[in-house]
Automatic annotation (TrEMBL):
GO molecular function: copper ion binding; oxidoreductase activity
Keywords recorded for this protein, A-Z: Signal
Source organism of this protein record: Rhynchospora tenuis
Protein name: Monocopper oxidase-like protein SKU5
Residues covered by the Plastocyanin-like domain: 41-153, 165-322, 406-540
UniProt KW Signal keyword: yes
Family statement drawn from the similarity comment of this UniProt entry: Belongs to the multicopper oxidase family.
Pfam family, any one: Cu-oxidase_3
The keyword S-adenosyl-L-methionine belongs to this UniProt entry's keyword annotation: no
SUPFAM superfamilies recorded: Cupredoxins
Record's signal peptide: 1-28
Length: 600
């Protein structure tokens, strides 16, 4: 064999085949994509102040996971932090496979220096999603990136093919480390007003010489005149709703978290924490100068708290024929002082395009959710933080969730008792708030109604792993059964994260066709950290493994099952280099390189 004549890169790929064969996943007939993600600390200054952030492959945001409906996704994650890590895949439904969900109810954390391989299928999904670290406010320090699930070639998108595709992350940001933010919450304090808003991990363009330091780097989106681009926007922040707008440009809404929408133009749109949207934006201006891209704080009182002025992210939209830099005032945010229901009314206009295909050729509206009988109703109430056993906590229906040391799903598999209780109440009870690991005992193939009642003074967003739900109604006041008459039973948007305005309710319908244990949480990181979450247990009466995928061979053990865990040699950046090369090549390419290496 002529190995000595081959380039070192080919030899590396040949050697890496042994790593591929040792990875704990099986290849199906579907096309697969492979990624290798290294999660490390790094000192950056996004707002002009040096701080420790969390990067994925050295950047914020991390690499885009780009896949297609029904493809297998294999992601090897190296934890280079000094604390445990889990990545969760916000919006990915992991059909029959909650083992890959990346939250404490289903997975043991990846220890420092270890790596772990996630494998899941983008089964019957399209759209714009994201990944992030799910433990201990780590998302407030970065560690996030985008997920794009493309249509199969056999299913057309309901608009002309765009000339390009951009992903934009917006989010409030603190210059304190996430460990310092945790300490504030542990001491019973609020996080306070954020120090700014980042757009794609960068600070604001210097639109104001007083508010923005001269040294801050900002994001620039480069475009060509006359072309139309798909822009996917995710609010990845800690707790602040943001209004998104592009100066002098319309935002044609086409998709929300995996559902194609009725297409309508917005000059601005409120995007709440954890939510994702896709817009088509046509470059139809004269490019007399660059244009502002703005994400500014909503539902805050700037007159009482002038520090909110700084909570504005600004990027630049740059035409190739632009005649100068952006200047002058930012485009105005919504003026809803006398129109307090502006944001809610805006949200109600976002509806499903019932005639479009998505993951399947049949129209999205062919699932007639409005004609299905509800099998159970859960009224889930949130209130301002309160004290339980002298600790400041957040609750749902009076229960503040305690993170488990043993994942709930593993406890079920090994028939462990006392790890959690299936006693989450279907509505608030008149009793003292308490700590607990309480879960919802849901019936497989049931059809449930969840009403989120926000009795807090700030807006909340709620996310359900494993599912998309139909947002059938929202309004101010206390929910009652009579409100069902106002539900949208035909073209309600199906999505994974919904907002609940203060003093208001939001109702969603969920078809429980996905077995597993699934996290229902506040996407507001401070409230999530303080206990505002619950798990939904959806078990097949015939046994979990009758319809659920088997526990993966590389499952991690912890808590009461720690004795089952095998030791793993901690990885370093150098020892992981061959795996990184491997995971960033597709399988066919690797096989070709290996064959070249062994043919005489």
């Amino acid at each position: 064999m002529r190995l000595s004549r081959l380039p070192s890169a080919v030899l590396l790929c040949a050697a890496s085949l042994f790593v591929l064969l040792s990875l704990p996943f099986s290849l199906s007939a579907n096309t697969s994509v492979y990624y290798y993600l290294e999660v490390y600390y790094k000192v950056l200054s996004p707002l002009g102040v040096p701080q420790q952030v969390i990067t994925v492959n050295g950047t914020i945001p991390g690499p885009l996971i780009n896949t297609t409906t029904n493809w297998d996704v294999v992601i090897n994650v190296l934890n280079g932090l000094n604390e445990p890590l889990l990545l969760t895949w916000d919006g990915m439904q992991h059909r029959r496979n909650s083992w890959q969900d990346g939250v404490l109810g289903t997975n043991c954390p990846i220890p420092p220096g270890w790596n772990w391989t996630y494998q899941f299928q983008a089964k019957d999904q399209i759209g714009s999603f994201f990944y992030f670290p799910s433990l201990g406010l780590q998302r407030a320090a970065g560690g996030f990136g985008g997920i794009t699930v493309n249509n199969r070639n056999t299913v057309p998108v309901p608009f002309a093919q765009p000339d390009g595709d951009f992903t934009i992350f917006i989010g409030d940001w603190y210059t304190k480390n996430h460990t310092d933010l945790r300490k504030l919450l542990d001491e019973g304090k609020d996080l306070g007003i954020p120090d700014g808003v980042l757009i794609n991990g960068k600070g604001p363009y210097r639109y104001n010489s007083i508010l923005v330091p001269e040294t801050v780097d900002y994001e620039t989106v480069n475009v060509e005149p006359g072309k139309t681009y798909r822009i996917r926007v995710h609010n990845i922040g800690t707790s602040t709703s943001l209004n998104f707008r592009i100066q002098n440009h319309n935002l044609l809404l086409v998709e929300a978290e995996g559902t194609y929408t009725i297409q309508q133009n917005f000059t601005n749109l409120d995007i709440h924490v954890g939510q994702s949207y896709s817009f088509l934006v046509t470059m139809d201006q004269n490019a007399s100068s660059d244009y502002y891209i703005v994400a500014s704080a909503r539902f805050v009182n700037e007159s009482d708290e002038p520090a909110w002025d700084r909570v504005t992210g600004v990027a630049i939209l740059h035409y190739s024929n632009s005649k100068g830099a952006a200047s002058g005032p930012l485009p105005d945010p919504p003026n809803d002082f006398y129109y307090t229901s502006y944001s809610m009314d805006q949200a109600k206009t976002i509806k499903m395009n019932t005639s479009a295909g998505a993951a399947r050729p049949n129209p999205q509206g062919s699932f007639h959710y409005g004609s299905i009988n509800v099998t159970h109703t859960y009224l889930i109430s949130s209130v301002p933080p309160l004290y339980i056993n002298d600790k400041r906590r957040s609750t749902l229906n009076g229960i503040s969730f305690i993170p488990p040391e043993t994942p709930l799903r593993l406890a079920d598999l090994h028939e462990l008792k006392g790890v959690y209780a299936l006693d989450f109440p279907s509505r608030p009870k008149n009793r003292e708030p308490r700590l607990g690991r309480s879960a919802i005992n849901a019936s497989y193939k049931g059809f449930i109604e969840i009403v989120f009642q926000n009795n807090d003074t700030k807006i909340h967003t709620y996310h359900l792993d494993g599912y998309a739900f139909f947002v059938v109604g929202m309004d101010y006041g206390e929910w009652s059964k009579s409100n069902r008459a106002s539900y949208n039973k035909w073209d309600a948007i199906s999505r994974t994260t919904t907002q609940v305005f203060p003093g208001a309710w939001t109702a969603v319908l969920v078809s429980l066709d996905n077995v597993g244990i699934w996290n229902l949480r506040s996407e507001n990181l401070d409230r999530w950290y303080l206990g505002e979450e619950v798990y939904v247990r959806v078990a097949d009466p015939g046994g979990y493994n009758r319809t659920e995928m088997m526990v993966p061979d590389n499952v991690l053990y912890c808590g009461l099952l720690s004795a089952l865990q095998r030791a793993q040699t901690p990885h370093t950046r150098s020892s992981a280099s061959s795996v990184r090369v491997l995971m960033n090549l597709n399988f066919a390419t690797i096989l070709v390189l290996v064959l070249l290496a062994i043919i005489p």
